[in-house]
Specification:
The chain has about 300 residues and is of the alpha/beta class. The chain has helices at about 5-10, 30-40, 60-75, 90-100, 120-130, 150-160, 170-180, 195-200, 215-230, 230-250, 255-265, 285-295; strands spanning about 10-15, 45-50, 80-85, 105-110, 135-140, 160-165, 185-190, 205-210. α3 (about 60-75) packs parallel to α4 (about 90-100) and α10 (about 230-250) packs antiparallel against α12. It is globular and about 50 Å long.
C-alpha cells in the first residue's frame, strides 16, 4: 500500500488488538485468528498488530513476524495492517523489514530503548528506520518522548513517507502547538486512550487508536460517532459510565493497559490469556471490578 493510500484510509477507529497467550505463556495463534475474525466484522479503519497492547516488547523475532503474517491473513486486505517497530536503530530496521515481508501496510515507530536521547540521535533513529522500507510511517509519541513543534517539522522534512503522528501522552496544549506548526502535512491520531476522545476530537482530530475495540468494537465506534457529530453531552455521559472507570483501573499499575484488556477478553469468551513478565495480571478483586464495567457495556457486546 502506498503511504498516501494508507493515510487516506485511516479515519475513525484504529484497533489495537492484544496478542493472546496460553497459560504457559506460549503464543496462541488460533486464538489470535479467532479474535481478529470477530474484530473485522465491525467497520474499524485499521489495525495495529504487535504494538504496545499486543505486547511487542515480549515477542521473539520469530513470534513477531508470525503475528503480523497471521494478522494480514485474517484481515484479507479489508483494512490497513500497521506493525509496531522499535527498540533500537538496527533492531527497528530489522523489524521494519520483517513487517514489510509479512505483508504489513505500514509501520508505527515506538520510541527507542534509550530514554531522553539527544534530538539529533532521535531524528536519525526515525529517519533510518523509515528509509529502510517503502511502507508508510507513523510515529508514536509516548512515555518520555516529548517532541516540540520544530522537531516534528524536521521529521516531516526528512521522512517523506511519514504520514501520521500518534499522540500517546494526552498533552493537548503541546499537541495543538505541533498541529498548528505542521498543519495537514500529517494525519493526527489520538492515541492516549479511549477516555481522551472528547479532548482529541475538540481539536479537530477524527481518528483514534482503541484498545477497547479489542473487546467491544461497537463501544469504540460509538465514541467516534458521538465525537464526530459534536454530541458533547452524550459523549461525556458515555465516557463517564463506560470508559473512565476502566481507565482508572488501568492507571493503577504499569502494564495494566494490557492486563485489563486481556482479562476482559477472557470474560466475554474471546482469547486473552495471561501477560508475559515483566507485566503482571490483574488481581481477583480487580476482576470483580472489571465484571461490573462489562455489565455497563452489555449493549455494545
Amino acid at each position: 500500500m502506498h503511504p498516501s493510500e494508507l493515510r487516506s484510509r485511516l479515519s475513525g477507529v484504529i484497533a489495537f488488538p492484544i496478542t493472546p497467550f496460553h497459560e504457559n505463556l506460549s503464543l496462541d495463534l488460533p486464538g489470535l485468528h479467532e479474535n481478529l475474525s470477530k474484530l473485522i466484522e465491525h467497520p474499524i479503519t485499521g489495525i495495529v498488530t504487535a504494538g504496545g497492547t499486543g505486547e511487542m516488547y515480549s515477542l521473539t523475532p520469530a513470534e513477531y513476524e508470525r503475528v503480523i503474517e497471521l494478522t494480514v491473513h485474517a484481515i484479507e486486505n479489508r483494512v490497513p495492517v500497521i506493525a509496531g517497530v522499535g527498540f533500537g536503530q538496527r533492531v527497528g530496521i530489522e523489524m521494519a523489514h520483517a513487517a514489510e515481508k509479512a505483508g504489513a501496510d505500514g509501520i508505527l515507530i515506538f520510541p527507542p530503548y534509550y530514554p531522553n536521547a539527544d534530538e539529533e540521535g532521535l531524528i536519525e533513529y526515525y529517519r533510518s528506520i523509515a528509509a529502510s522500507t517503502e511502507l508508510g510511517v507513523l510515529i508514536y509519541s509516548r512515555d518520555w518522548l516529548t517532541f516540540g513543534p520544530s522537531t516534528v517539522e524536521r521529521l516531516c522534512s526528512q521522512i517523506p513517507t511519514l504520514v501520521a503522528w500518534k499522540d500517546g501522552q494526552g498533552d493537548i496544549r503541546r499537541l495543538q502547538a505541533i498541529m498548528n506548526r505542521v498543519g495537514d502535512r500529517l494525519l493526527w491520531i489520538g492515541g492516549a486512550g479511549d477516555d481522551m476522545v472528547g479532548a482529541y476530537y475538540s481539536t479537530g482530530i477524527r481518528t483514534f487508536t482503541s484498545s477497547i475495540a479489542t473487546v467491544a468494537p461497537r463501544l469504540s465506534l460509538r465514541l467516534h460517532e458521538l465525537g464526530s457529530s459534536d454530541a458533547k453531552d452524550d459523549l461525556a455521559e458515555l465516557l463517564d459510565r463506560c470508559v473512565i472507570p476502566l481507565f482508572a483501573i488501568r492507571a493503577r499499575r504499569k502494564g495494566y493497559e494490557v492486563s485489563t484488556m486481556k482479562a476482559l477478553m477472557d470474560m466475554v469468551g474471546m482469547n486473552g490469556g495471561p501477560v508475559r513478565p515483566p507485566l503482571v495480571n490483574v488481581t481477583e478483586e480487580e476482576l470483580d471490578e472489571l465484571r461490573v464495567i462489562l455489565g455497563r457495556w452489555e449493549k455494545f457486546l
